[in-house]
Write a structure and sequence with these properties.
single chain; nine-stranded parallel sheet; mainly beta; 277 residues
Length: 277
């Protein structure tokens, strides 16, 4: 009886995981726009952008790459989301667009496990509703497990920060990695009170003067984040009003900014990377 019970649980788990990975529609290679609700997947790499306009839409690129066909990079957005309530974009690689992913989102939207390379402007931009007060019943937007890579892309330094998030109260920004970036900072968080920043890593920056910047975004939780730069890049945190800052590690940023946190415990600050013994 116990064996049957365990077998049933295992089968249920497999069915649930299969349902989570299910795909309603393989997006044709020449289709740019998506507006009907459903789950869409890519079956191959492509050189066209994707424009999502609607709600209840999930795009799973399955690690396929959207590449800007211009060899020297160029303008435009790799994946654009407009009015996205409960929109999910996952497992996408976006290469060579000015902005990798730009999303105007609403309740319950998610950016999960995407990678942006060779973005000339701002790799990831996520905005909430700019036309009114936030809905207290809205599900938080989740920006989790994404990567911005900037090493040796042969392009000028970026105009904007690696991630720009505005107008998203309670946003969950977790386990993202920014490495080798040549822009003006790691994360700009504006008009987004009560955000949670957990486990993010900002590594090996070549430029930037404000690594995590809060603009009218009080009461953030800043926990287990890491900043480590190859050269001094200026401030770690700025504008962290009423923030809770716990167990972060900041190397080669001065000042760290922890002094502005209302709660600061067990953080590690080191002015520059350690040298040999």
């Amino acid at each position: 009886m116990r064996l049957n019970s365990k077998t049933g649980l295992a089968l249920a788990g497999l069915l649930l995981s299969a349902n989570a990975l299910a795909c309603d529609t393989l997006l044709p290679a020449n289709q740019i726009g998506i507006s009907a609700p459903g789950k869409y997947c890519l079956s191959g790499n492509r050189s066209l952008p994707i424009d999502i306009n609607g709600s209840d839409i999930e795009l799973d690129c399955r690690t396929r790459t959207l590449t800007n066909p211009s060899t020297g990079g160029g303008p435009g957005v790799g994946i654009m989301v407009r009015g996205g309530g409960k929109v999910v974009v996952r497992n996408c690689r976006v290469d060579g667009f000015a902005n990798g992913i730009q999303a105007d989102v609403a309740s319950g939207a998610q950016l999960l496990n995407n990678t942006v390379l060779r973005a000339q402007d701002t790799p990831i931009i996520v905005h909430g509703n700019p036309f009114g007060p936030p809905d207290p019943q809205a599900e938080p937007v989740r920006i989790v497990g994404n990567r911005v890579i900037g090493y040796d892309n042969g392009l000028p330094a970026n105009w904007g920060p690696a991630l720009r998030v505005h107008g998203l109260p309670g946003a969950v920004i977790a386990n993202n990695v920014v490495a080798g970036y040549r822009g003006r900072g790691g994360l700009e968080l504006g008009e987004s009170p009560d955000a949670q920043l957990t486990g993010n890593q900002f590594l090996d920056f070549e430029a930037g003067h404000r690594m995590i910047q809060f603009i009218n975004s009080p009461r953030a939780r800043v926990v287990h984040n890491t900043i480590m730069s190859r050269q001094p890049v200026g401030e770690g945190l700025t504008g962290a009003v009423d923030a809770t800052c716990v167990e972060n590690v900041f190397v080669n940023v001065q000042p760290s900014g922890f002094a502005s946190c209302s709660v600061a415990r067990y953080n590690v600050e080191q002015p520059q990377p350690p040298t040999g013994p």
